[in-house]
Amino acid sequence: MSMYDPLKKQLSSSNHSKISMTFSEIESIIQAPLPMSARKHRAWWSNNPSNSVITHAWLKAGFRSAKVNLQEERLVFIRETDSKLGGQPLLSSASIFGVMKGLLSVSPQTDLTSPTHEAWSATEE
């Protein structure tokens, strides 16, 4: 269980597609202070699932962060859905591994074990 589960629960239970929150409101929900990096670095609020534990909270609730304003200490959570999934959140509680499957292909003629440069050799120092 994560300290950010109350935020996930709050977002999940909302019927709104956009939720504006201040950092203080988030701290009130999680009943703990946000780290200083949350107030100094916009990247802390990125939607990269490997960013931090709190990121998983809003992504698993079906939201993404947007309009992060560090000076005013506020942001907007926007509900993310995929019409192909019948309006389901883009990131479920399932693993994110394999999400890029099928986006890259390698020609069958490509030898992935060959050197990348003609001058390369195993004896070269």
Describe this structure in words.
The protein has helices spanning 5-12, 23-30, 36-40, 53-60, and strands at 18-22, 63-69, 74-79, 81-82, 88-89. With 125 residues, the protein is an alpha+beta fold. It is elongated and about 60 Å long. The model is unreliable at 82-88 (pLDDT under 50). Helix 1 (5-12) packs parallel to helix 4. 23% of the residues lie in helices and 18% in strands. The strands form 2 sheets. A 3-stranded antiparallel β-sheet has the order 1-3-2. The protein has a two-stranded antiparallel ribbon with strand order 4-5. The termini are far apart. The protein has a domain at 5-82.
SSE ordering? HEHHHEEEE
- Rg is 20 Å
The main pleated sheet reads as: 3 strands, antiparallel
Shape: elongated
| Strand order of the biggest β-sheet | 1-3-2
Fraction of residues in H or I helices: 10-25%
Number of strands: 5
The structural class is: alpha+beta
Please, what is the average pLDDT? Answer: 81
Distance between the termini: 51 Å
Instruction: List the uncertain runs.
Output: 82-88
Number of helices, counting only DSSP H or I runs of 4 residues or more = 4
| Proportion of strand residues | 15-25%
Task: Please describe the structure with a list of short key phrases separated by commas or semicolons.
three-stranded antiparallel β-sheet, 18% strand, 125 residues, two-stranded antiparallel sheet, 23% helix, alpha+beta
